[in-house]
Amino acid sequence: MAPVMAFWGNSEPLFTDSFNIESFTDETFDATVLSSSTPWVVDFYAPWCPHCRHFAPHYEAVADHYGESTAVHFGAIDCTKYGPICNRYDILGYPALRLFQIEADPIKMPFSPRPKSFQTVVTWIEETMTEKNRSTSVALPDFSTFKLDDHKKALRGPKAEAKKKTEAIDARANRLRDAAHALVFSFETSFFMGAEPLVGTRYAAARSWLQLLTKRFPLAANQKQLAELLYRFESQASWTADEWRLLVALWKSDSHGRAYPKDLFTRPNYVECETFTCGVWLLLHALAASDGDVAPLGVATGVRSFVEHFFGCELCRMHFLEANPISKLETLLGDPATAKDALVLWLYHMHNTVNVRVGHPVWPAKAECKLCYKTDVASANRTDVAEAAVLKYMTQAYAFPATDADVDRPVAANDVAMGADGTALKGASAWEAYTPSTPLEIAPFLLIATVFFVVYRRRTISHAIVNKDS
């Protein structure tokens, strides 16, 4: 077999890293293309085919040209792996394009002795859509100035790739900032809702929640800071509100400059969120999508316990607990082979269930993830959701590197920053390199800690005097 493959060329599938081209299997093709009300252009190809490989960057350019449009989607299927699908549509040569969901049968791109190209495919799509009274709502490019090499460089060149990666990491950094801000707010306000001191069942729930955070909260340096908070928490068997708030204030001061980003646990406000609940959802999605030593079932039960004991909206808490009994979570996440993806999808669907109940739009919007839905608009109906695309979206948006050293940022030659845990970082932007906190930076937190200490000390002395007099 090896000599044959050497003769025919590379057998690796195409488009696996494409953002705007969905790679289908025999299972996902029908569920995605045939169930959609939106037109799909599908490239039927064979990896060994030199013409397929020559056409691949043209097809990527076409898909990227229509990238902002929700009127047409693009996919591809490897006929060497999924032959029955290709046979169903009479694919007699490669590459072959079909336009689905315009009429009952897929429309073939006419054969031409000239190779398929960016211009011929865009022209065919526009002419076919116009003929069928449909529109892509995308203006035709200037073919006279279009050069595939220039287009490939703009899309795939080192600078563009670095910029794209930087923007993605910066977006995750801002989500993480908002998640951490909500987490710290919950530390400061939620642990003592209607009950003081923190003892017994609520103490155990707080301890379990902190333990989960030390294992699943994104990035090793942040886990270290949370582990320090857990260590201090476990130094007492119970906590009063004043004692705990003093501890949190001191911990925030100590963590500044040692977390990623360095102000992660000390920011005074949100970056993108406007509400506490928005930040909580970002936190929960990050815990679900990130890797860690806690099994998916442990993450789900930990989230459930947090909502049960420390989430202030009574009606929200009741709905969440009713919708997620422990028995349901055990069934959903009991299979180790599927539990990781099932955890991410469970929180995704739970999030949209809440959105529908409170009158918020389904998330993410169709424009943000157009392949996430089989319908023309975002839908919370599970049958309308393309779960494979949702998993890809959630992973890109919320899964963080396992260690700080994996935060891959473009930097100048020999520019290596050291992280808070001593690992080498490849760069810094939203993810600042570790720098020691200056007195000016930590002064507000020291002031808060001092105030709490004075108040706590006065109360202790007052209690001692009263007890002595009595």
Structure description:
The chain folds into two domains: 22-142, 3-Layer(aba) Sandwich (Glutaredoxin); 170-398, Up-down Bundle (Four Helix Bundle (Hemerythrin (Met), subunit A)), CATH 1.20.120. Helix content is 53%, strand content 6%. The chain is built from 17 helices and seven strands. The strands form two sheets. The protein has a five-stranded mixed β-sheet with strand order 1-3-2-4-5, sandwiched between helices. Helix 15 packs across helix 16 (387-398). The radius of gyration is 27 Å and the shape is elongated. The relative contact order is 0.09. It catalyses: 2 R'C(R)SH + O2 = R'C(R)S-S(R)CR' + H2O2. It comes from Achlya hypogyna (Oomycete). It is an enzyme of class 1 (oxidoreductase). Residues 266-373 form the ERV/ALR sulfhydryl oxidase domain.
Provide a brief overview of the structure.
Its cofactor is FAD. The protein is mainly alpha-helical. The chain is 53% helix and 6% strand.
- Provide the CATH architecture of the largest domain: Up-down Bundle
Order of helices and strands: HEHEHEHEEHHHHHHHHHHHHEEH
Look at the structure and name the CATH superfamily of the largest domain. Answer: ERV/ALR sulfhydryl oxidase domain
- Shape, per Cα inertia axes: elongated
Name the beta content range.
5-15%
Major sheet description: 5 strands, mixed
Ranges with pLDDT <50 over ≥5 residues? 1-9, 153-160, 403-439, 463-470
Q: At the first level of CATH, what is the class of the largest domain?
A: Mainly Alpha
Mean pLDDT: 80
Radius of gyration: 27 Å
Instruction: Please give the domain count.
Output: 2
Total number of helical segments?
17
| Sheet with most strands: strand arrangement | 1-3-2-4-5
Helix share of residues? 40-55%
Number of strands: 7
Structural category: mainly alpha
CATH topology of the largest domain: Four Helix Bundle (Hemerythrin (Met), subunit A)
Enzyme class: oxidoreductase
GO biological process, one term: protein folding
Keywords: Disulfide bond, FAD, Flavoprotein, Glycoprotein, Membrane, Oxidoreductase, Signal, Transmembrane, Transmembrane helix
EC number: 1.8.3.2
